[in-house]
What does this fold into?
Amino acid sequence: MLREGEKVFGMINVSDCYTLSNGVKIPCVGLGTWKGDWQTPDTGEVARAVCAAVEAGFRHIDTASCYLTEEGVGLGVKECGINRSELFVTTKLWNDVRGYRETIDAFHASMKKLGLKYLDLYLIHWPNPAAFRDHWQEYNAETWRAFEDLYKAGDIRAIGVSNFYPHHLDALMKTAQVAPMVNQIRLHPGCATDEIVQDCRRRGILLEGYSPLGTGNLLQNPEILRIAEKYGKSAAQICLRWSVQREFIPLPKSVTPQRIQQNAAIFDFEISEQDMEILTNLQGELGTQINQDNANF
It folds into this structure.
């Protein structure tokens, strides 16, 4: 265990920040809001989760147009009792929208649902949607041009992508004037995605990890449970601590205040190099990256 107040990897709580390539600060852990079953979430429940997260110390909230939680997140931001400037809010452009004007319109639709005057981070959710597969490079270029204009206008503080492999980033950078600052991908023990991680770090792109608990699959993994018992922590805390020590931003989803508080309590211990290696190399049905170029959505 660490001494009280001792920093590991420069972070001592969930509100401590990394610095993006443009100088914007982004908190090192965020609250995820994907319900996971593609049904309409309860707006009040989402808002209460945001308020519980803020009370637990979270200052980073992640949503997306396809999550159908933007209204709940916006309500939570309004009701949580702290200044908007202290929060970092992300949303994402879904696969049914590509093109310059269409992206501008979709952004403003998301902002209306969120009820915010500005956005901290906007992401292209997917690099190669099925509906645009024949010319995804051109569509992404026009979409990114809209992102850049919104960024330059001050409507968005930072812009990035999600689920992009190196070849998707290569294509984007052929026309981009502003490089993506973030790539949000699936990252958790047993899904380290080293090729994407190394490529993003070479480019100066910060990595966020969605499904840091493997959509719950990791919480009953025998090896993770063994390591959790060793450190006197929960399986979820071990998974999130793994992300922090890999310098990924994990985005755990929960609507339960007690679990949200537990997810914030990951800065008073350090996983050994040996145990980190075990976690990184876990095998089994833990979940992997979907092939972005073959998915049917």
User: Anything to note?
Assistant: The chain has a mean pLDDT of 94. The longest strand covers residues 156-162. Strands lie at 17-19, 25-27, 31-32, 60-62, 88-93, 119-124, 156-162, 182-186, 206-210, 249-250. The radius of gyration is 18 Å.
